[in-house]
Amino acid sequence: MEKIVSGIVVGSTDYKEADKIISILTPTDGLIRATARGVKKDKAKLKFSAMPFAFCEYTLIKKGDYFLVKSAAQIESLMHIAYDPDAFLVGAVMLEISANASGGTDSTLFISLLE
Q1: pLDDT tens track for 32-78
Q2: Which of 17, 18, 103, 104 has a beta carbon 3.0–4.6 Å from 40's, enabling a disulfide?
Q3: Which residues contact residue 81 at a Cβ distance below 8 angstroms, ignoring those fewer than 6 apart?
Protein backbone atom coordinates (compact mmCIF):
# COMPACT_ATOMS: atom_id res chain seq x y z
CA MET A 1 0.00 0.00 0.00
CA GLU A 2 1.41 3.37 -1.03
CA LYS A 3 0.92 6.55 0.96
CA ILE A 4 1.84 10.06 -0.19
CA VAL A 5 2.62 12.60 2.52
CA SER A 6 4.18 16.04 2.69
CA GLY A 7 6.44 16.65 5.65
CA ILE A 8 9.65 17.86 7.22
CA VAL A 9 12.40 15.53 8.42
CA VAL A 10 12.83 16.26 12.12
CA GLY A 11 15.35 13.54 12.90
CA SER A 12 17.15 10.47 11.69
CA THR A 13 18.97 7.44 13.05
CA ASP A 14 21.62 5.39 11.28
CA TYR A 15 20.34 1.95 10.38
CA LYS A 16 22.39 -0.86 8.93
CA GLU A 17 25.34 0.02 6.72
CA ALA A 18 23.81 2.54 4.29
CA ASP A 19 20.26 3.20 5.55
CA LYS A 20 18.60 5.67 7.88
CA ILE A 21 15.35 5.66 9.79
CA ILE A 22 13.88 9.13 9.38
CA SER A 23 11.17 10.87 11.39
CA ILE A 24 8.86 12.92 9.18
CA LEU A 25 6.51 15.47 10.74
CA THR A 26 3.36 15.81 8.63
CA PRO A 27 0.38 18.14 9.09
CA THR A 28 -2.18 15.34 8.74
CA ASP A 29 -0.56 12.18 10.12
CA GLY A 30 1.68 13.59 12.83
CA LEU A 31 5.08 11.94 13.18
CA ILE A 32 5.85 9.09 10.77
CA ARG A 33 8.98 6.97 10.91
CA ALA A 34 10.24 5.48 7.66
CA THR A 35 13.33 3.67 6.40
CA ALA A 36 15.32 5.46 3.71
CA ARG A 37 17.47 2.82 2.01
CA GLY A 38 20.96 3.57 0.73
CA VAL A 39 20.93 7.27 1.65
CA LYS A 40 24.32 7.14 3.38
CA LYS A 41 26.06 6.29 0.11
CA ASP A 42 27.87 9.14 -1.68
CA LYS A 43 25.81 8.98 -4.88
CA ALA A 44 22.42 8.17 -3.34
CA LYS A 45 19.54 9.73 -5.28
CA LEU A 46 17.39 10.20 -2.16
CA LYS A 47 20.18 11.50 0.09
CA PHE A 48 18.56 14.97 0.26
CA SER A 49 15.31 13.50 1.53
CA ALA A 50 16.87 12.12 4.72
CA MET A 51 18.57 15.35 5.83
CA PRO A 52 17.25 17.44 8.73
CA PHE A 53 14.99 20.28 7.51
CA ALA A 54 14.14 18.38 4.28
CA PHE A 55 10.65 19.52 3.25
CA CYS A 56 9.43 17.01 0.69
CA GLU A 57 6.51 15.09 -0.67
CA TYR A 58 7.26 11.47 0.19
CA THR A 59 5.85 8.36 -1.40
CA LEU A 60 5.91 5.69 1.28
CA ILE A 61 5.28 1.96 1.02
CA LYS A 62 3.90 0.05 3.98
CA LYS A 63 6.14 -2.96 4.73
CA GLY A 64 4.83 -4.87 7.72
CA ASP A 65 4.93 -2.58 10.72
CA TYR A 66 6.97 0.19 9.12
CA PHE A 67 7.17 2.46 6.07
CA LEU A 68 9.83 2.52 3.37
CA VAL A 69 10.63 5.68 1.37
CA LYS A 70 9.97 4.87 -2.29
CA SER A 71 10.51 8.38 -3.68
CA ALA A 72 10.71 12.00 -2.61
CA ALA A 73 10.25 15.35 -4.32
CA GLN A 74 11.54 18.50 -2.67
CA ILE A 75 8.82 21.07 -1.97
CA GLU A 76 11.05 23.81 -0.62
CA SER A 77 14.67 24.05 0.48
CA LEU A 78 15.05 25.00 4.13
CA MET A 79 18.85 24.64 4.12
CA HIS A 80 19.33 28.43 4.32
CA ILE A 81 18.75 27.97 8.05
CA ALA A 82 22.18 26.32 8.32
CA TYR A 83 23.93 29.55 7.30
CA ASP A 84 22.49 31.72 10.09
CA PRO A 85 23.68 30.56 13.55
CA ASP A 86 20.68 32.03 15.40
CA ALA A 87 18.16 30.56 12.95
CA PHE A 88 19.97 27.22 13.06
CA LEU A 89 19.86 27.12 16.86
CA VAL A 90 16.12 27.88 16.91
CA GLY A 91 15.53 25.37 14.10
CA ALA A 92 17.52 22.65 15.85
CA VAL A 93 15.53 23.15 19.06
CA MET A 94 12.27 23.01 17.10
CA LEU A 95 13.38 19.80 15.35
CA GLU A 96 14.15 18.23 18.73
CA ILE A 97 10.76 19.27 20.13
CA SER A 98 8.99 17.97 17.02
CA ALA A 99 10.87 14.66 17.05
CA ASN A 100 9.82 14.06 20.67
CA ALA A 101 6.23 15.25 20.27
CA SER A 102 3.35 12.93 20.95
CA GLY A 103 1.86 11.08 18.01
CA GLY A 104 -1.10 13.44 17.56
CA THR A 105 -2.14 14.88 14.22
CA ASP A 106 -2.43 18.50 15.34
CA SER A 107 -1.08 20.61 12.45
CA THR A 108 -0.10 23.50 14.76
CA LEU A 109 3.35 22.03 15.46
CA PHE A 110 3.97 21.43 11.75
CA ILE A 111 2.98 25.00 10.82
CA SER A 112 5.14 26.45 13.61
CA LEU A 113 8.13 24.45 12.42
CA LEU A 114 7.60 25.48 8.82
CA GLU A 115 7.41 29.17 9.74
Answers
A1: 999 999 999 999 999 999 998 899 999 999 988 889 999 999 998 88
A2: 18
A3: 53, 87, 88, 91
Strand partners of residue 66: 63
Residues 70-88 as b/e (b if ≥16 CB within 10 A, e otherwise) read eebeeeeebeebeeeeeee
**What is the CATH classification number for the domain harbouring 106?**
2.40.50.140
Range of the domain at 47: 2-114
CB-based burial of residue 38 (10 Å sphere; 0-12 exposed, 13-18 middle, 19+ buried)? middle
Of 31, 7, 30, 33, residue with least CA distance to 19:
33
Is residue 49 within 8 Å of 56, Cβ to Cβ? yes
Please count the structural domains in the chain.
1
